[in-house]
Model the fold of this input.
Amino acid sequence: MTPIKIFLDASVILAGLGSIKASSYALLTLGKQKKLLLIVSPIVVDEAKRHVDKIQKSPQDIDDLIIWANIKITDIPTKNQIVEFSTVVIDPNDWHLLAACSQIKNITLVTLDRKHLISKRDKIDYPPILSPAEFLGDFLNMSLSI
Done:
């Protein structure tokens, strides 16, 4: 069975690295177990490394987590691909997430950004956007129905 693909926002990486009790950590663990295919872009990795001091961790901890959780790093979207999303979400720092996801079939964007992404998901056709807890609820329901 092909694992479900999810694209992680930097907020999810940081939350998972910061607390083993977080839903984000559960996603990372499912990636480690190869039950999910976790994907990020180099932009997400850089963003996580820039903010890792907020959780008293180091950039090396991000690199270690990427290996531990089997996170795949995809290509950086082109400027043209990124700009396409300038009318979809207000924050230009989020355009790259949608652009990267648009290049991957059957992927869900998982984020903790309620203000700019989760609250706008009804206006975004693709990708589906969920919080880690929402995704885990859907994943559990899907697993139980098999």
Remarks:
- The first strand starts at residue 4 and ends at 8.
- The chain is about 45% helix and 10% strand.
- The chain has one domain: 4-144.
